[in-house]
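Translate structure to sequence.
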């Protein structure tokens, strides 16, 4: 049996069973009774029945007070795959008497923790803190909290559930992204750079990069005049700006098959989503393939970040399906920069360009890693 399957079996088992010592005890009882009865040795038979009575009594009294225990599990709101997460377990004795020799267990598909307590005082609560690392995105099931005791004789063990099971959604873990370097990368990779600078991809409130100074031309805003340089040179000089792609962004995930390929695209998408949603108010769209295809649209911020990461967490692990080209519309404003995420060169870029009649930038995780723009988790 695998370690995972064995962990699940232990986490969900409840009831009574003999301990190792109890099994030895039962073995001795069988030997004594067998020899005593067969050989007609009354003393051995008597000892055998006494030992049998003791182990029977042990099964009746073991763990009787466990029913007074209450357990509660507290987890962080945001749980990222492969990242340590704070786990707090609260154990309360609701009875008026102490409970002795208890082991508290918290288990699941990929974790198993335990704490031993010699004594839990009446009407008392104890907290246990640890960290759990959940290995992959998606739903993760915590088994009910369990209390185990073999007190008082140690011949039987009783295990009872003292808390409810918990199901949590593990979000994909983002890597690290150099946002300014990604902007430069997008400009450098854009084959339509001249058209972008003429017509603008820029959000009305987006900042532009200061490029230099040039003589004043008709139509320039007076706010751009650099007065100190103008006074020194005797002519009006204005600041020149280089337009940059706006903060509004559309990400389209290309199709991929195989767990490693799928996770590579999802990790990059999660990283860009995380970075872009650190400030509020920009438009961010995410196009996902599958049956049916999806297009998620909203304004950046914590709420949109959570919604997009949750959707990524629930994507299949082995096949992303065809890209959602049919959902893309020319109604998407020209201020929205369009980016395709793919594992390599793909005709999806040309399809999206033909659909939206605007330039599209292709991002490949391996190339971004090599340029220092992106570091995977």
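Result:
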């Amino acid at each position: 049996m695998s370690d995972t399957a064995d962990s699940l079996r232990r986490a969900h088992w409840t009831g009574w069973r003999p301990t190792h010592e109890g099994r030895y005890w039962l073995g001795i009882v069988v030997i004594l009774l067998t020899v005593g009865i067969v050989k007609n040795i009354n003393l051995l038979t008597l000892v055998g029945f006494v030992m049998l009575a003791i182990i029977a009594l042990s099964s009746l009294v073991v763990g009787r007070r466990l029913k007074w225990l209450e357990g509660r599990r507290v987890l962080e709101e945001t749980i990222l795959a492969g990242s340590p997460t704070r786990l707090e377990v609260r154990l309360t004795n609701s009875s008026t008497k102490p409970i002795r020799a208890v082991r508290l267990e918290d288990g699941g598909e990929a974790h198993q923790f335990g704490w031993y307590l010699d004594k839990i005082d009446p009407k008392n609560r104890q907290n246990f803190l640890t960290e759990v690392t959940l290995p992959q995105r998606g739903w993760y099931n915590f088994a009910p909290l369990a209390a185990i005791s073999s007190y008082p004789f140690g011949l039987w063990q009783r295990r009872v559930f003292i808390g409810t099971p918990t199901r949590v959604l593990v979000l994909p873990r983002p890597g690290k992204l150099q946002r300014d370097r990604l902007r430069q990368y997008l400009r450098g990779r854009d084959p339509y750079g001249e058209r972008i600078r003429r017509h603008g991809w820029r959000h009305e409130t987006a900042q532009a990069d200061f490029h230099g100074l040039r003589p004043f031309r008709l139509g320039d805003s007076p706010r751009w005049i650099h007065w100190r340089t103008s006074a020194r040179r005797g002519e009006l000089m204005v600041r020149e700006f280089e337009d940059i792609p706006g903060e509004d962004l559309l990400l389209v995930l290309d199709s991929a098959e195989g767990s490693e390929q799928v996770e590579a695209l999802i990790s990059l998408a999660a990283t860009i989503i995380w970075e872009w949603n650190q400030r509020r108010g920009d438009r961010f769209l995410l196009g996902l393939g599958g049956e049916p295809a999806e297009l998620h649209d909203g304004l950046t911020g914590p709420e949109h970040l959570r919604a997009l990461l949750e959707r990524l967490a629930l994507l299949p692990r082995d096949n992303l399906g065809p890209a959602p080209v049919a959902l893309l519309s020319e109604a998407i404003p020209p201020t929205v920069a369009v980016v395709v995420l793919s594992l390599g060169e793909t005709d999806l870029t040309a399809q999206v360009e033909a659909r939206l009649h605007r330039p599209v930038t292709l991002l490949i995780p391996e190339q971004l890693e090599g340029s220092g723009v992106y570091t995977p988790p």
